[in-house]
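In response to reviewer comment 3 from the previous cycle, which asked for concrete evidence that the modeling workflow produces usable outputs, we include below a single protein chain processed end to end. The sequence was submitted unchanged, and the resulting structure tokens are shown without manual editing.
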Amino acid sequence: MVWIKYWRQVLLAALAAGVVWYAHHRGFQTALAWQQAVIAEIRAEQRAQALAAEQAYTAKLAEVQKLAQVQQAKADAVAKNLAEQQQKSRLQVERNKKEIDDAIKQDQAAADGCTDGFGAHSLRQYRRALGYAD
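The workflow returned the following structure tokens.
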């Protein structure tokens, strides 16, 4: 019976509680939506940064691989040149040995087998081996 006397106040209090609950619930929903939007934005930014970093890494890797290929080509050219020079050197050593033997035989034949030093042919071969003209 007492509440009948205060029905307006009770109704107003219930209405105010409903409004507060609704405002609180809507505020929570709004805050949650805002928070999810911020999280989505941060994740999108992280994905964009990761993609940019991956692209930069891929570009740098391609650049390094290209430099490695250039260096490998230079190394191959030097190795080929070295092999050619070694082959030329071996052939020259063999040619010099043969020419030395021939020069000694020619000197011995010219001196009837008696030579105790350089003959004309040996001296010519010696000068040739040192790079002088005949």
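The CA atoms of residues 74 and 80 lie 10 Å apart. We consider this sufficient to address the reviewer's concern, and the full set will be provided in the supplementary archive.
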